Amino acid sequence: MDQLTPPPDLARLFNKQGDLVSMPVKEPLRVQLLTWVASTLPEGELSEVEINAALRPIDDDVAMLRRYLVDYQLVERPEPGVYRVRA
Predict the structure, then answer these.
(1) Minimal CA–CA distance to 36: which of 53, 63, 16, 13?
(2) Cβ-count burial of 36 within 10 angstroms (0-12 exposed, 13-18 middle, 19+ buried)?
(3) Residue 8 carries which DSSP code?
(4) Cα(77)–Cα(75) distance, rounded to whole angstroms?
(5) In 14, 28, 36, 62, which residue has its Cα 20 to 30 A from 4's Cα atom?
(6) Are strands 75-79 and 82-85 parallel, antiparallel or unpaired?
(7) Can you give the pTM of this predicted structure?
Protein backbone atom coordinates (compact mmCIF):
# COMPACT_ATOMS: atom_id res chain seq x y z
CA MET A 1 0.00 0.00 0.00
CA ASP A 2 1.36 3.45 -0.92
CA GLN A 3 1.70 5.70 2.08
CA LEU A 4 0.61 9.31 2.37
CA THR A 5 2.01 11.37 5.22
CA PRO A 6 -0.66 13.17 7.22
CA PRO A 7 0.12 16.58 8.68
CA PRO A 8 1.58 16.48 12.22
CA ASP A 9 -1.69 17.51 13.87
CA LEU A 10 -3.44 14.47 12.34
CA ALA A 11 -0.60 11.96 12.81
CA ARG A 12 -2.13 10.56 16.03
CA LEU A 13 -5.07 9.23 13.97
CA PHE A 14 -2.77 6.85 12.06
CA ASN A 15 -0.84 3.76 13.14
CA LYS A 16 2.88 3.22 12.48
CA GLN A 17 2.08 1.65 9.11
CA GLY A 18 0.27 4.83 8.06
CA ASP A 19 -3.25 3.39 8.19
CA LEU A 20 -6.15 5.42 9.59
CA VAL A 21 -7.03 3.89 12.95
CA SER A 22 -10.59 5.21 13.13
CA MET A 23 -12.73 8.12 12.02
CA PRO A 24 -12.65 10.84 14.70
CA VAL A 25 -15.84 11.20 16.72
CA LYS A 26 -15.31 14.89 17.42
CA GLU A 27 -16.63 16.96 14.54
CA PRO A 28 -13.82 19.54 14.26
CA LEU A 29 -11.14 16.85 14.06
CA ARG A 30 -13.23 14.83 11.58
CA VAL A 31 -13.62 17.89 9.34
CA GLN A 32 -9.88 18.56 9.56
CA LEU A 33 -9.09 14.96 8.59
CA LEU A 34 -11.58 14.91 5.71
CA THR A 35 -10.31 18.25 4.40
CA TRP A 36 -6.80 16.80 4.31
CA VAL A 37 -8.05 13.61 2.62
CA ALA A 38 -9.84 15.69 -0.04
CA SER A 39 -6.64 17.68 -0.63
CA THR A 40 -4.81 14.44 -1.53
CA LEU A 41 -7.26 13.63 -4.34
CA PRO A 42 -6.64 14.59 -7.96
CA GLU A 43 -8.89 17.40 -9.17
CA GLY A 44 -11.65 16.80 -11.69
CA GLU A 45 -14.00 13.90 -12.36
CA LEU A 46 -13.10 10.47 -11.08
CA SER A 47 -14.78 7.14 -11.55
CA GLU A 48 -15.53 5.06 -8.47
CA VAL A 49 -12.53 2.86 -9.29
CA GLU A 50 -10.26 5.93 -9.53
CA ILE A 51 -11.41 7.53 -6.29
CA ASN A 52 -11.14 4.17 -4.51
CA ALA A 53 -7.53 3.83 -5.71
CA ALA A 54 -6.76 7.35 -4.45
CA LEU A 55 -8.36 6.72 -1.04
CA ARG A 56 -7.01 3.21 -0.39
CA PRO A 57 -3.56 4.42 0.84
CA ILE A 58 -5.39 6.26 3.64
CA ASP A 59 -7.84 3.52 4.66
CA ASP A 60 -9.07 0.25 3.21
CA ASP A 61 -12.66 1.27 4.00
CA VAL A 62 -12.90 3.48 0.92
CA ALA A 63 -16.72 3.40 0.97
CA MET A 64 -16.73 5.09 4.39
CA LEU A 65 -14.29 7.77 3.22
CA ARG A 66 -16.31 8.40 0.04
CA ARG A 67 -19.54 8.77 2.03
CA TYR A 68 -17.99 11.21 4.50
CA LEU A 69 -16.37 13.26 1.72
CA VAL A 70 -19.72 13.56 -0.08
CA ASP A 71 -21.69 14.18 3.14
CA TYR A 72 -19.32 17.00 4.10
CA GLN A 73 -19.50 18.38 0.54
CA LEU A 74 -15.76 18.05 -0.01
CA VAL A 75 -16.42 15.85 -3.05
CA GLU A 76 -19.49 15.96 -5.30
CA ARG A 77 -21.31 12.90 -6.58
CA PRO A 78 -23.26 14.16 -9.61
CA GLU A 79 -24.38 10.64 -10.55
CA PRO A 80 -23.78 7.10 -9.31
CA GLY A 81 -20.19 6.01 -9.87
CA VAL A 82 -18.92 9.52 -10.67
CA TYR A 83 -17.13 11.80 -8.22
CA ARG A 84 -16.02 15.38 -8.76
CA VAL A 85 -13.17 16.82 -6.74
CA ARG A 86 -13.29 20.59 -6.57
CA ALA A 87 -10.17 22.72 -6.92
Answers:
(1) 13
(2) middle
(3) G
(4) 7
(5) 28
(6) antiparallel
(7) 0.90
